[in-house]
Write a structure and sequence with these properties.
binds magnesium ion, nine-stranded mixed sheet, binds threonylcarbamoyladenylate, 15 strands, about 375 residues, alpha/beta, about 20% strand
Length: about 375
């Protein structure tokens, strides 16, 4: 299939008519920029191979990196979520024991709709392209009303990776999607700025009963532990390809260096490292985690003996949710500024959403 080149995508308000137009696109195997509460997704019919191919090509994403399948809340009769996913021919829970199945159900009851993705044994009808040939499928029920309305109108589950080119910064507004993919897709539904700002937390519920955290995200680790009564295993065992876990990801075009601490507390050897990273650059970008951004920029400028510093802060009072919401947009802004090299203060701890923020900053700066 050849990529269709269009001049520019249209950004549409999420009126009922526009949602219908977008749903028609999806029914025809095309892809659409879709808002969710975490980040914007590039949505396509999860059961249509040509739509899936289009998603991979549009993003330039390798096909070994599986997609997340998005479902809408059920209308009417109350079913358990596992049963609902079974009836949608997405999940085949038969490899799971009853207690294991109950753990999956409890997680979905606690966090759906919302920023939790579950990896469960897949139903044979799910195309291998969606799951990269894995025997499991990742499913999520977003809580953004526009995502819910679009999935319902399309009448099919939607595969949706983040709507950025592979490896780059995830989009948290319709304009970001335009910047990333505007020349490659036709429609972007504008659902406003994303409320969470980092991707969903991915948890695999395995046939052995193990519950494994594959990607930190919008639901904190402690909240998951609480629901399953402890025993959450962190990270993949090497057996599963979970490329959200590829070392380099979420990256700006410019080189990003993660600092050892807040700029006010850097020692002489750290300042020396910054100096050598700066080289001949005339302006640098600084992502301040918390506190007074002007003071932080001034303190770095002085430590370097004068230098143009373009600084922005994630949250003045260090609120993790606010910081997560701001993270990708501020990184994108610095990437688009006159700064030639970027530096970021680390997240001071990994409490709550701090865990996901620290993960994203590490991966965005991996090139070092
Ligand atoms: O918040 C989100 O999850 C966003 C929005 C758009 O919903 N989507 C998103 O998709 O982050 P994406 O494609 O950027 O990340 C999907 C990741 C894969 O990279 C992989 O790590 C994991 O989900 N994944 C998908 N299927 C899997 C499977 N069967 N087993 C293990 N990991 C899987
Ligand atoms: Mg992504």
């Amino acid at each position: 299939m050849n990529l269709r080149v269009v001049t520019d995508a249209q950004i549409l308000d999420p009126t009922p008519e526009n949602i219908k137009i977008a749903a028609e696109h999806l029914k025809n195997g095309l892809v659409v920029g879709m808002p969710t509460e975490t980040v914007y997704g590039l949505a396509g019919d999860a059961l249509n191979e040509s739509a899936l191919t289009r998603i991979f090509k549009t993003k330039e994403r390798p096909t070994f990196d599986p997609l997340i399948v998005h479902v809408a809340p059920p209308e009417g009769r109350e079913l358990g979520f596992v049963e609902m996913l079974e009836r949608l021919n997405l999940v085949d829970p038969s490899p799971l024991s009853l207690p294991t199945r109950a753990k999956a159900e409890a997680l979905m009851q606690a966090f759906w709709p919302g920023p939790l993705t579950l990896v469960l044994p897949k139903h044979r009808d799910v195309p291998d392209l969606a799951t990269s040939g894995l025997p499991t499928v990742a499913v999520r029920m977003p809580r953004h009303p526009v995502a819910q309305a679009l999935i319902a109108a399309a009448g099919t589950p939607l595969a949706a990776p983040s709507a950025n080119r592979f490896g780059r910064i995830s989009p948290t507004s319709a304009e970001d999607v335009m910047e990333e993919l505007g020349q490659r897709i036709e429609l972007i539904l504008d659902g406003g700025p994303c409320e969470v700002g980092v991707e969903s937390t991915i948890v695999a519920v395995e046939a052995s009963g193990t519950v494994r955290l594959l990607r930190p995200g919008g639901i904190a680790r402690d909240a998951i532990e609480e629901v399953i009564g402890g025993g959450l295993v962190i990270g993949n065992d090497g057996a599963i390809a979970a490329p959200g876990m590829l070392a380099s990801h979420y990256a700006p075009r410019k080189k990003l260096h993660l600092l050892a601490g807040p700029v006010g507390k850097l020692g002489p050897s750290e300042i020396e490292k910054i100096r050598s990273a700066i080289g001949k650059s005339r302006a640098i970008g600084l992502l301040v985690f918390q506190g007074d951004v002007g003071a932080a920029a001034e303190s770095l400028r002085r430590a370097l003996g004068g230098m143009r510093v373009i600084a922005t802060a994630l949250s003045e009072d260090g609120d993790r949710e606010e910081a997560a919401r701001a993270l990708f947009g501020e990184l994108r802004a610095l990437d688009g500024s006159n700064a030639e090299v970027l530096f970021a203060e680390p997240c001071p701890d990994e409490q709550g959403l701090g865990y996901a923020i620290a993960d994203r900053l590490r991966k965005a700066s991996h090139a070092e």
